[in-house]
Amino acid sequence: MTFEIKLAEEKEASIVHKIMLEAFEEYRNLEVPSSAINEPLTSIQNAIKTGKEQAILFYQDGEALGCSRLQLDETSLYFARLSVPPQARGKGIAKKMIKWIEKYAKGLKKKEVRCRVRLALASNIQLYQAIGYKVVKEETVLNPNGFPVKTVIMNKQL
């Protein structure tokens, strides 16, 4: 089995969108459902087109099985909506993508990688902690639908 991780091109936004929807479907029935399940494809297309965001895709044997969105600032790389559909989980795909993200950030001379995780998703927090991320702040944010969501900001110094 061979895998490749690469920056997504604007024309691949539909693949990013499809994977994200599959991965986030399980969060539809949370007290405050994830806004990812209602995010339109045009939002991803525009973010990539304008350079506001980048996205990565994980391919294994030619099949897209993971993605994440990236935002850069002067000192850090922020990743969001890390997505692996249920049928592809448990194979280390998320960890491989995060390792790629960290290497990419180092290549861009960033000092840290950050992400935000819902406090209710303990298994996701544990995954990130297992690979060196630390909770640096708890914060309640309003999702795009205006509902409050308790989150943690996690980071890893590079």
UniProtKB/TrEMBL annotation:
Residues 3-158 form the N-acetyltransferase domain. InterPro entries: Acyl_CoA_acyltransferase (IPR016181), Bact_Acetyltransf (IPR050832), GNAT_dom (IPR000182). Gene3D superfamilies: 3.40.630.30. The keyword Magnesium does not apply. Keywords: Acyltransferase, Transferase. It comes from the Bacteria. The keyword Acyltransferase applies. This is GNAT family N-acetyltransferase.
